[in-house]
């Protein structure tokens, strides 16, 4: 099962125990003005594609209504959120350099590597703490592997972060911050 950007937002919100108003504020720090209503529509969970066919039709109708209400979170929106989260957690920088071409998410690009990198910055995590967060969920990551996940795309040691790593990292964050 793959994670989409909406799922990433839902998981970060839960892990860090953020309210809708805080999410709106974080998006604003990232340069994106959203209403609380729009944020709520972005936080509607994805439909579980593995649900058994014997569930009630009423549930399927409610899920279809939710799908219609749901607003898809694009990579640019997720990046605005992550940039805003850095500002929200660490404070505003005096001088904000323009993002380089390699750190800007394109719409068809996998956001997981940038997710790890920006969460590391926002939460002031050390590499050892990130390795411990992975270990909480049973994923063993060496310091070298973590470094490869945090490298820029195009670097010779760059390794693409799969959904399994990103999902387990967010699960580990939940354990760390919510007990």
Describe the structure.
The chain has 179 residues and is mainly α. The chain is 57% helix and 0% strand. The protein contains nine helices and no strands. α2 packs across α5 (75-90), α5 (75-90) packs parallel to α6 (112-122) and α7 packs across α9. The longest helix has 16 residues, at 75-90. It starts with a helix and ends with a helix. Mean pLDDT is 85; it is low at 49-63.
Strand content: under 5%
> In DSSP terms, counting alpha (H) and pi (I) runs of 4 or more, how many helices?
9
| Total number of beta strands | 0
Radius of gyration: 17 Å
Mean pLDDT: 85
Uncertain runs are 49-63
The shape is globular
Give a quick account of the main beta sheet: strands, pairing sense, barrel closure.
Answer: none
The CA-CA distance between the termini, in Å, is 26 Å
Helix content: 55-70%
What's the helix-strand series? HHHHHHHHH
Coarse structural class: mainly alpha
Task: Please summarize what this structure is.
With 179 residues, the chain is mainly alpha-helical. The protein has helices spanning 5-15, 20-29, 36-42, 57-69, 75-90, 112-122, 127-136, 143-150, 163-178.
Draw up the topology in text.
Elements: H1 5-15, H2 20-29, H3 36-42, H4 57-69, H5 75-90, H6 112-122, H7 127-136, H8 143-150, H9 163-178
């Amino acid at each position: 099962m793959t994670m989409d950007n909406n799922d990433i937002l839902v998981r970060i919100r839960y892990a860090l125990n953020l309210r809708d108003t805080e999410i709106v504020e974080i998006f604003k720090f990232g340069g994106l003005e959203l209403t609380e209503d729009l944020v709520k529509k972005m936080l509607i969970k994805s439909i579980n594609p593995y649900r058994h066919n014997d569930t009630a039709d009423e549930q399927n109708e409610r899920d279809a209504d939710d799908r219609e209400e749901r607003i898809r979170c694009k990579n640019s929106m997720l990046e605005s959120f992550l940039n805003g989260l850095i500002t929200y957690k660490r404070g505003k920088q005096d001088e904000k350099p323009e993002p380089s071409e390699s750190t800007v998410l394109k719409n068809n690009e996998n956001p997981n590597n940038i997710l790890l990198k920006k969460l590391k910055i926002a939460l002031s995590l050390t590499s050892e703490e990130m390795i411990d967060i992975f270990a909480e969920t049973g994923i063993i990551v060496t310091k070298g592997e973590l470094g490869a996940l945090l490298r820029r795309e195009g670097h010779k040691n760059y390794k693409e972060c799969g959904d399994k790593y990103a999902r387990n990292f967010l699960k580990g964050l939940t354990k760390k911050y919510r007990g």
